[in-house]
Amino acid sequence: MRKLIPGADDAPALGLVQVAPRIRVLALRTPTLPPAAHTNVYLVGPSQGPVAVVDPGSPYPDQQAILDTILAELPISRVLLTHHHGDHVGGAAALAAHRGVPIAAHPATARRLDDIIEVTELIEDGDEIDGTIAVHTPGHAEGHLCFEIDDASIAGDMVAGVGTILIDPSEGDMALYLASLERMRARTPTTLLPAHGPPIRDGHAKLTEYLAHRRMREQRVLDALVAAGAGATTDVLLSVVYADTPRMLWPLAERSLLAHLAKLVHEDHARYDAAGGRWSR
Length: 281
Known about the structure:
Layout: E1 2-3, E2 17-20, E3 23-29, E4 38-44, E5 51-54, H1 61-71, E6 76-80, H2 86-89, H3 92-99, E7 103-105, H4 107-112, E8 121-122, E9 128-129, E10 132-136, E11 145-149, E12 152-156, E13 164-165, H5 174-186, E14 191-194, H6 203-228, H7 234-241, H8 250-266, E15 271-273, E16 278-280
């Protein structure tokens, strides 16, 4: 999930666009989180195919028809999924069935999609597939994968070209997410190809920005816990830690706050009194 950023817009290029050697992108309308309204589908491979199709996420027939038209003259090797969220997998089953190709994903993604979409090939960290290297980057989702090709990385929902990334504690893990950002920053690719928005050419700078922002927010949580003394409710912490965030976004901000708090509890930097509903140091 991505957090709404006032003033951001989602205006993808029309049609298929070359974004890196052997990688083209098509933005399709999906039921995703504003300000984004589209999810990028990446075609990986030679211009004449075969190509792997990464994250065909649209469930809408008119959008699937656009993709089918583009792929009509191209052989397809398989569908690759970065993770299990609906705006990334919404058209996967239809495309795989139509073209008779497998769907490949991390085992954790396959478990999440059990009884929804049949994942027929499993991808582990470091696997080479369709000319890419799969890199396991959990945190936003437990089975999240990036796909690296030379200087580019198809980054899924690790970063965003529009909006930013929400870590929901119901299925995400802030500590793992930060570790995955660090891992990505230490690797070779500098161009990040996100699922939402345009390419990020200085990927290392963007990853540094993301890490600094998360650490700033975590420090605000710690400072608020210290100031609270005997403890504070989630609502009180939210009003302090996200005082710089419009109130309309607080419901989403609360999910990020809880992810930070869960990380701090695990690290013994915070405690939660379930009976009183209060957080403290």
